[in-house]
Design a protein that fits this description.
With 409 residues, the protein is α+β, with helices and mostly antiparallel strands. The protein has 7 helices and 16 strands. It has a domain of 213 residues. Helix 1 packs across helix 2. It binds coenzyme A (COA).
Length: 409
């Protein structure tokens, strides 16, 4: 693969990965475009180069990313000027809202639930000409430290106005490794549960279109209320789990509206380019308020129209509103209709499969009870959910609650 990096003179050898002259900083706009041009074959095969460059630029303007929520990073030689320096390795981080809960004892009054931020890391990339020299490892080591304080609110009243200020705690950071479990673990991101339930697409009329159906499609306008309920339920779940596991920190990314919109607006960009239209059905919900079950989903395209194997309908989040409801009967019936709508949407939008990441015990029981053919896949190479914890105790001992696809970036 050709490189768009500036050519180095033979007299300027590449710096060692441990060189003090290496810095972690932000790329200029031109450097960012160079990186995107290099990553296009890997991450944008369903788009033309121009389409991919437009998407990456567009993704700096959507919820979560806008107003400085996304940060692009490069490891480079600090002794050289911007736009003429080598882009030795690169990645990006996305600021997200997060929660942690811990209780020293099993007394509910002892629980502290903390609101904070967590960074999602993605697009880790080293140009082929620079690979194998330790640059990505150096970048990850520097980032692990930098992110502990990055975008954390200060009490500086002279700071520029921000419509969405960060809370004063960076709780943890996450990434989803496509290169197995060891590379990122070496820099402090421990691998967590990474399995999914897979359903086949089924080109049938969705049950929601029948009079007798209990499940209804979710569109953009229903999401705000559902995400708000979900966030409240998750807060309570975290507090409950902290009490049942005293001394263990329970953490979660907040499944708020912005977290979902980041995925859905990305999906809309992709489907507009591939199909010339956007899907209206963003999930499905069944049951009466207080007894609902719902799923929110997004379609991901790496194969486009030519290679359906690269396309997946990802269930971002599954919520059971009343955890005390019996699995059989009403709940299983509603859940099965939701999955059938997902299967029909997957078929209509050229997805090879439907994936639901790390279902809870309750949702796993629903999967079994709903009677729809499926298989469980335990991943060991791709999309390995990995987390670095900034609080006390070992990362690997954390209880990562709601480790579902909505956290991916
Ligand atoms: C992965 C990548 C960023 C590593 O960059 P790098 O600067 O060469 O990394 P380092 O020199 O610090 O470390 C090299 C180590 O990365 C690991 N690694 C690289 N590619 C790997 C892969 N496909 N699977 C597993 N491990 C891999 C190996 O442990 C390798 O060690 P080795 O050279 O002894 O085999 C680079 O290969 C790349 O850009 N690949 C394409 C994009 C990509 O896959 N990004 C990761 C997305 S999660």
């Amino acid at each position: 693969m050709g490189s768009t990096s500036p050519k180095r003179s033979p007299a300027a050898p590449l710096p060692s990965a441990s060189s003090p002259s290496l810095i972690l900083t932000q790329p200029t706009a031109a450097e960012r475009s160079r990186i995107w041009t290099l990553t296009h074959p890997m991450w944008g095969p369903a788009l033309t180069l121009d389409g991919y460059l437009s998407r990456e630029a567009y993704l700096t303007t959507v919820p979560l990313a806008k107003e400085g929520g996304v940060t692009h990073w490069i490891l480079t030689d600090g002794s050289q000027p911007p736009d003429a320096r080598p882009l030795l390795s690169s990645c990006e981080t996305l600021r997200k809202r997060a929660l942690s809960a811990c209780a020293p004892t099993s007394t509910p009054a002892d629980v502290t639930v903390v609101d904070g931020i967590a960074h999602g890391l993605g697009s880790v990339f080293t140009d082929e000409q620079y690979r194998g020299r330790g640059y990505a490892s150096r970048m990850m080591q520097e980032l692990g430290t930098r992110l502990r304080t990055w975008q954390v609110a200060t009490t500086n009243h002279n700071a520029p106005y921000s419509p969405s200020p960060s809370p004063p705690h960076a709780l943890f950071s996450v990434l989803y490794s496509d290169i197995g479990k060891t590379f990122y673990a070496r820099s402090g991101w421990a691998p967590f549960a990474s399995s999914h339930v897979e359903f086949a697409p089924a080109p049938t009329e969705p049950p929601a279109q029948n009079e007798s159906s209990v499940a209804k499609p979710i569109g953009y306008h229903e999401l705000a209320e559902l995400c708000s309920v979900d966030a409240q339920l998750l807060r309570a779940t975290l507090a409950r789990r902290a009490v049942t596991h005293p001394g263990t920190a329970c953490v979660a990314l907040l499944p708020d509206l912005d977290a979902m919109l980041w995925h859905l607006m990305r999906e809309d960009f992709m489907t507009t380019h591939i199909f010339g239209r956007t899907p209206a059905v963003k999930g499905a919900v069944a049951g009466a308020v207080g007894r609902r079950v719902w799923a929110v989903w997004t379609r991901g395209y790496y194969g486009g129209l030519d290679k359906v194997e690269g396309n997946t309908l990802h269930i971002l989040r599954v919520v059971v509103e009343d955890e005390d409801m019996a699995v059989e009967g009403e709940l299983a019936h509603g859940f099965s209709e939701i999955i059938r709508i997902a299967q029909a949407e997957a078929a209509a939008w050229r997805s090879a499969d439907v994936q639901m990441w790390n279902p809870t015990d309750k949702v796993s029981a629903l999967v079994e009870a709903c009677g729809i053919a499926h298989r469980v896949v335990v991943r060991d190479q791709s999309s390995i959910a990995s987390l670095m914890w900034y609080g006390e105790g070992e990362t690997a001992e954390l209880d990562w609650v709601a480790n579902e696809k909505y956290g991916w970036c």
